[in-house]
Amino acid sequence: MHPDAVQRVLGVLLMVFSVTMLPPALVAVVAADGVAEAFLMTFVLLLVLGGLLWLPVRQSRRELRIRDGFFVVAMFWVVLGAAGSLPLVIQNAVPFGFVDALFESVSGLTTTGATVLTGIDSLPLSIRYYRQQLQWLGGMGIIVLAVAILPMLGIGGMQLYRAELPGPVKDAKLTPRIAETAKALWYIYLGLTVVCALAYWAAGMGAFDAVMHAFTTIATGGFSTHDASMGYFDSALIEMIAVVFMIISALNYSLHFMAWRWRSTEPWRSDPELVAFLTVLGIVIALVLGGLLIYQAAHSLLLDETWHHAIFQVVSFATTTGYTTASYYVWPAFLPVLLLFVAVVGGCANSTSGGLKVVRILLLWRQGGREILRLIHPQAQIPVKIGDRPVNERVIDAVWGFFAAYVLLFVLLMLVMLAMGLDQITAFSAVASGLANLGPALGDVAANFASVGAGPKLVMCVAMLMGRLEIFTLLVLFTPAFWRR
Amino acid sequence: MHPDAVQRVLGVLLMVFSVTMLPPALVAVVAADGVAEAFLMTFVLLLVLGGLLWLPVRQSRRELRIRDGFFVVAMFWVVLGAAGSLPLVIQNAVPFGFVDALFESVSGLTTTGATVLTGIDSLPLSIRYYRQQLQWLGGMGIIVLAVAILPMLGIGGMQLYRAELPGPVKDAKLTPRIAETAKALWYIYLGLTVVCALAYWAAGMGAFDAVMHAFTTIATGGFSTHDASMGYFDSALIEMIAVVFMIISALNYSLHFMAWRWRSTEPWRSDPELVAFLTVLGIVIALVLGGLLIYQAAHSLLLDETWHHAIFQVVSFATTTGYTTASYYVWPAFLPVLLLFVAVVGGCANSTSGGLKVVRILLLWRQGGREILRLIHPQAQIPVKIGDRPVNERVIDAVWGFFAAYVLLFVLLMLVMLAMGLDQITAFSAVASGLANLGPALGDVAANFASVGAGPKLVMCVAMLMGRLEIFTLLVLFTPAFWRR
Ligand SMILES: [K+]
Ligand SMILES: [K+]
Would the keyword Metal-binding turn up in this protein's UniProt record (chains A, B) (predicted)? Predict the structure, then answer.
């Protein structure tokens, strides 16, 4: 660890983050909703705090190294998660305590989208804006984290993409070219947001709502400015626009980057993970549609426009966005659980979506196949391949490690939730949703997390952070070996 | 595949199994309960069927090879599972259909112990005897399967024990020394059963019940001759005797074999899996006891003799025996789910217990630790060790493959159960219990499986067989590569 370098980065981070309080402050002033003071106070607080951290070490020329990387990345979400809760705590007009504010902020920055709020439609406009912006910023952070930083840290097999990455990935030093990669990715991210907002607006959303939902669509975040989420607009066209942009955001941003730089669709067409993801989407949509039709026939119901509810809901879960239109939790028990498992699989690596990631499942599947072949041909040397490329054994090890840690953490957090008094379905679905950065769950927390106590909310914060940081980024900080010189 | 050799083995298997119909027939005659005819008809049927298979190929001198091994092992449980249901189908006095009979038989032979029966206390005596015997025979089969056959087939990392095994394990031919190993193991198994029965009897059980429960204790099966299971006897002494013998049966029988041959306790004392298993038992007992005491204090209850319920129930689940004394499913939600997860971990490898097996979890844990170290020291070569021995990377791969297959199968079977209309808790707990060969579950099937339809019962049969055959033994039969020449 180089404390100087870490301290410098944290200081800069807080100062930059403080600036993000100005747009909601502006919204508050324009809307005259009385929250401007809270945002401005937070701005000053964070700016001063960041400055105090930065000033003493501003001359330090030390570079960040791998080990510092884990610390800085973890701090990014933990410290900014706490910092993001400040306006909600300061603003007395919004009567919830620190735990609720922290939950909302962490849920925003990790692009989870679970909420403790009810009556969102009648909240001050600036707070409705602020939540959406938190997710959009979180999504930005994730893209850089996933594409430029995690592969370098070797987290959970994400070094799979090391060789082909447009970044500093073969370099032991962290800073040199991250800025350049980040800038290109942010242009793509911003561009997608603008196009998505225009499409929503053209389809009939109000301008404010169009931008607000573009923010959380591209971030696969799922926060909405309405309690009814996307169901508020009751429009198949808007839902299909959301479907398109949720899928784009759940694809590997390295592919978008290469397609843009090379002016070619080749990177998309030749990606095995993308093909697998779209195949799974197709199969699950067919299953859900079939399930709903059978259910309707059996109960002599005629649900209105089942087809777009099915498509929208599956894509919303599979991309771990978590918007809802239908009351999916009153569907027959099979379907919501299927949707939860699909969310646990998640989207593609290097995207804003959460979950295990399709490429990891693909890799586990391939290695499962190899194990069976090995049983039949014990002497054969059989490489595991993704596409045409054999995968390094060490990467496979890392993916197994991640998978086991995910399952273990799932069981552990679920038991803690149960011990805190939640029922089995609530505990199971909340942990699944939190770890996958999905948002919606089942049981007592199907609509929101307002009804559970402080304990389960804090456990959810841990789950969301662990999920977002691919577990090991946080886990490694708790090992003695990390702190040993 | 050598069809001749396989056919010969199956024929012999059926003829040997037919003989096991004679003891229950004898019980039926002595008790004059009217079921003798069903057992004798089954005896004749299976003897003739086995003979017809065996006769044409009795001269064949072909040896079984690895690939035939998978087929024979799978057939053992599938064919005998079906064969074992015959007396229950034939006997009209027991009014259940083929699916129920199959469920009961498979549950018996796989030592799962889930039942579709209610009113067990008032069943004909010979049927009460027959169920217990099925489990005892299943347990015998498992010991040989686990110690002598699976390691040779390379299933799920069980070749971990290849080097130290007292068997034909380095030989590509299956038959030569299996008989010798099997005989020694069966002496141990029989010896433990006799001692256990004497202990139960000395503690106050009737002679019949003592033998019957010794059968299913040593098999870690959990069938009982009473609806109330071990709770029927309401005796802390009997429960503690059961605890001792359940633990012994959940330990690695290779250790018992070596300890017996060497006249030494060294094999037990130096086994890392045994130490880990007992440690986990201790921790979970403490958690359950603590949980119950807090629950009682909070609800101003004074449950009678909590301590022995806690110890008995934890050991019963951790060894995947599945006896019950307390109504564990009305304990606060945290505890039954904890017990289920403990059962999913299961007992030690090469024992009669089910689940993932402690040694596999230990291995996954060690490799998880290695992955974290690799993040901090990317260049280091770090071996994974169990005890002092580094573990072959190929074995680790096999264990990961098994773990992933287990999780995937769990999710798949749970979704199928939900699609068949079971609620979430029932589906989750039934699949967990079936795959771990545990027996008890939660929700609608907390007491027994009488209330669910034929579909879920057949799914349970699949789960129980998959769990017992360590998944891959069955899975490999469904791959084209297996059948290719
Ligand atoms: K989300
Ligand atoms: K059992």
Answer: yes
